[in-house]
Amino acid sequence: MEGDCLSCMKYLMFVFNFFIFLGGACLLGIGIWVIVDPTGFREIVAANPLLFTGAYIMLAMGAMLFLLGFLGCCGAVRENKCLLLFLTREYFTKELKKHYQGNNETDVFSSTWNSVMITFGCCGVNGPEDFETAPHFRLLHSDDVVPEACCQRELQTRDGAFVSKEDCLMGKDMYQNRQGCYTVILNSFETYVYLAGALTIGILAIELFAMIFAMCLFRGIQ
Question: Model pTM greater than 0.85?
Answer without folding.
Answer: no
